Structure formats: structure tokens, C-alpha cells
């Protein structure tokens, strides 16, 4: 009996020992969790600098470093389906050399060939990446880069005077070579077909005078083209003497600028008359052809019913009138904007003149046209904050000479110089940090835009520079404008210089370059450069006896009156 009891006790101890040993074995051999741990991005450097996920002006031989919290599985890095790619904005992949550092936690990316200048690239690290332990990247990243402007000159250097002549001659081709074949008028833009523009043609008329003066064409050739244009204008649609904004260059019929804008456009008409009166003063010979040209111009100018556009005899001029919609556009012409010449020509008319009260109450708006504040270190006499788009200082002043010109409201030489300098200083200050802005790249005005068309100005700036802004400011800022011209031509010429001069606009920040050219932007370039060089168009327009009388009646004073 004692033997049996002992055996049972020994067996119990054996079971206990086996059970304990089994528990120990279970604890040691349990398999790890089969799910790999995800990992994260930790740092991005471009040429050893870290600036978030957007970089501008990087060198073309840049080196990119991306760091992660885990060592990377190298097999998941490269190739079209790899986890890291560098592509331009057209989705074209860049061939890369990949190396590693920090125990494979940092991926070093070097393009096999230099990146293209002024080009936007995107560097992507996607969740296709795996860690050496099999984990997935928790969240992908995208960084964007804009490369530097190529510092090499795109064309051989020439003298400043030769460069000015070259720009004028190339821009002149827009109005001469690309003039509408039937009407001779300026087409709205390089893709406009038969749509010709009234105001742009006015600028083009002054460009033709410049072309004769600079020997781009002969006087006889210029006269023949002007006879064609004026002959067309004699039969084209008019509304109380005012032309529409757009005209069919074949038929002379109005083309609606917008739904209700299918009648007279007084501002566009004033730009046309500004050009026509300049032509009249230039072609001053006594022969039959030039005498007939002058008579035709007098008839066109005399037919404009400026006083009708007072809208029921009010003390303001109105921009539009339509035979279908009457005054429904309802846009009063109150300053400060591009339309000073509209009031000057209305006051100068010998057939449908307006009194000074319309100028004072309408244009000057009882004196509220004045500003007097300073922007970027420059005091501005008139207009909105920072001056508005620079075409305010150009369109009316293709003919009106602002130098030494004053009235009750401003000194217009001071006004326009201040406006241009504010734009120049704004680009130097670059408060929005747009890549490319600076003393060599400045000028905001209405032009084509990345998203269509926009009146660019310091208060409405999206990074788009319009060459016409700085170049048409040559009379006001000759040194600053020359800096811009040299940069546009020598450094960006491969992107913005074409058969008709500089294209309409560009953005280095967004690596966008317009392919368009517009009459209202090309015209001020050639004309205002000429006014800077010789005051030719200023002298001609200001020599008009009607203009002298009209401006004096409005209270203007100038050595040219």
C-alpha cells in the first residue's frame, strides 16, 4: 500500500514537471506578429537645404535627399513603377542615379543629365516604397521644384540703341506683316482671324508712323496702307460716330465684344482717333493724296458724337451705347484709368464738344481722382492704391505728352513716373515671393494670363509679368526699363521672343510662357520706345490745333500747348 502511494506521488511530480517545461517551450517559440510595421518620411533636402516642399531657382545639377524612419528596400525604389520618381509638369520622367546613406534610410537622387532651365519638376515618393523589413510608407509625399533661369545670353549682345531699334522693328511686324489683308487694320491678337480691333488699330497707326520714321518702310508704303485703313473705316459700322470695340475685317460689321457690347465703344474710338490725328499731322504735304487723307481723318473725327455719350446730357461720359441695349452697359468714365484721352478728344472736338464741367464732374469725379499716398517709397498723385495696371500710364499717353503737363489735379509727368517706379519697387520688394521678380524682371498690366486674361497690378498679382508694362514705361523709367529689356531679350529670349516681338506675358514662378501677341500690348511697346527716343508721336499729337485748344479749355498747362 505504501509502494502504490509513492508511485502515485512520483507520477504527479513528473506530470507537473512536463507541464512546466511545455509552458516554457510555448513562450520561447511563439512566432512574431506577421504584419510589418509601416514607416514614415522624415526629411527632404535639396542641395543640402530644407525649405518644405516647394523650391524655386534651383540649379540644374541639383541633388535631392529624402530620409525615412526605416531602411529602404532598394528593389522598390527605381523604374517606372518604382516608389520614387522625378517628372516635369508634362509627366515626362527624368532618368536618375540613386545612392543611399544613413544605413539606407536616406535616398540620394541625382539626375543623370542636367535639368532644363525654368522648368517645373515634381519629386514623388509613393506608398509603393517598402522598408527593408517589408513595411509600407505610411503616406506619400510630393515636392515641386522650379529650376533657375539659364544665365547664358540667348542672342549676341548689341548696343542699347541697336536693341531698341530691333525691338521696335520686330514689334512693327505685328501691325505691318500681320495687318488684316482686306481692311489693313490691326487684328485683336495673333489668333483672331478676321476680328480687328478699333483701339489696337489706333496704336497700330502710330506704329506705322514710327516705322516710316525708322526706315522700316517708305513714306509711300505707309501712306498706301493708311489709305486702305481709312477707306475701310469710312464704311465700317459706327454708332453716333463711335466705332465698336471689334469689327469684322472683311465686312466692316460690328462683332459683339460681349452680349450687350455690340454698339459704340467711346474709349476704343478715342484710341483710334488718337492715332488718326497723329497720322494727319505727319502727312502734311500739299499733294492730292496727303490732302485727301487729312480730309478723310477730319471727317471721321468730326463725326464722333462725343456729347451724345454724355447719356442724356449728364456731366459724365459713358463708355458704351448699343442700338439694341441703349445704355444698359452703364459704365461711366471716371478716373483714374486709361481714358484721359477720351475726355481730351471730346473737349477738343469742333463738332460735338463737351464743356469743362463734364471733365471735372465726370472724369475727375469732383476731385476724388486724387490719391497722395505713398507706395514702396513713392508718392502717387492720382488713382487707386499702387496706381493700378500700368496701361493707365500708357494708352492715353501714346499721344498726350505728360512731360511738364499739369492741371488742377496733378502733374502728369510726376504721376506716370511714380506709377512706373511703384511697379518697379514692388517687384524688387516682391512681397508675395514670386520666383523671378526683381530689378530685372518687373511690370504688371492687363494681359493674357495662365487662366485667361487679367488686369495685373500690385493689388491683383498672381506672378505674371507682361513685357509691355516695363517696355512701354521707357519714357518714365529709362534705366529700369532697359534692365528689364535686356533680361527679357538676352536671358528669356528663347522663350518669349518671336516673329512679332515679345509675347504677351510669362510667369517664371509657374514656368508659363504665353505664345500670344495682342495689338493693345504690342502697340505701346513700339510707340512709347519712340517717344522715349525722339518724342515723335508726342510732338505730332500735341501739335493738333484742336487738341491744344481742348486741353487749354480743360485747364491743362504744358510747354507743348
Concise account of the structure shown:
With 561 residues, the protein is of the alpha+beta class. 35% of the residues lie in helices and 14% in strands.
Uncertain runs are 1-29
Overall morphology: elongated
Sketch the major β-sheet: 4 strands, antiparallel
Structural class label: alpha+beta
Layout of SSEs?
Blueprint: H1 2-29, E1 41-46, E2 54-58, E3 64-68, E4 84-88, E5 96-101, E6 106-111, E7 120-125, E8 141-147, H2 160-176, E9 195-197, H3 198-213, H4 219-233, E10 246-248, E11 254-255, E12 264-265, H5 266-282, H6 288-302, E13 320-321, H7 340-348, H8 356-363, E14 374-375, E15 378-379, H9 412-429, E16 446-449, E17 452-455, H10 467-471, H11 478-491, H12 493-496, E18 497-498, E19 501-502, E20 506-507, E21 512-513, H13 519-533, H14 536-542, H15 545-553
Parallel strand pairs: 2-8
Antiparallel strand pairs: 1-3, 3-6, 4-7, 5-6, 7-8, 9-10, 10-11, 12-13, 14-15, 16-17, 18-19, 20-21
What can you tell me about this protein's structure?
This protein has about 550 residues and is α+β, with helices and mostly antiparallel strands. It has 15 helices and 21 strands. Strands 1-3-6-5 form a 4-stranded antiparallel β-sheet, with no helix packed on it. Strand 5 and strand 6 form a beta hairpin. Helix 2 (about 160-175) packs antiparallel against helix 13 (about 520-535) and helix 5 packs antiparallel against helix 6. The longest helix has 28 residues, at about 1-30. The chain is elongated. Residues about 1-30 have low confidence and may be disordered.
Entry keywords:
14% strand; 2 domains; 15 helices; alpha+beta; 21 strands; Glycosyltransferase; Immunoglobulin-like
